[in-house]
Amino acid sequence: GKWTLAAIDWRHGGKTVTPSDNSWEHVKWVWRCSIVTYITTIHHLMWTHWMVANSFATSLYETLGPQHPVRKLLHVHTYKTQSINHHSALALYPENGMLHRMSPFPYSELQRIFMLGAEGFQFHTWPE
Q: What is the mean pLDDT of each run of 10 residues along the chain (128 residues)?
C-alpha cells in the first residue's frame, strides 16, 4: 500500500502534530528542513567527504608510491578529493557560508549539528 505520514513529534513546539492540527504545514516544513540539513551536513559533507573520502585519499597517497599499481587503479576515485574537501570547508562551514545561509538554523545550532556528526562517526575496518 501507500505510506501516509500520520504525525510528527515537534520537539520545538512541545507536542505531537497530526494532519488535522493548524500547524501541520509548518511542522512538515520544519521536519523537511531538519532532515535535509542533517543528511547534507552529517552524512554527506562530514562523513562521506571530510572523513571517509579524505582519509581514504590521504592514506592512499601517503602509503603507496606514485607508481604502485593499486594507487594507479584507485587514483580515479580519489582525484582532487583533498582540494574538493578543502574548498567545501571554506565555502560551506563558516558562519554566513553557503550551508548556513541555506539552512533554517542559527549558526550556533549548525555548529552543534556538526559536533553531533563528528561525535557520532564510527570508523569500521573490514572484517578479518
A: 90 93 94 89 94 94 95 94 95 94 91 94 88
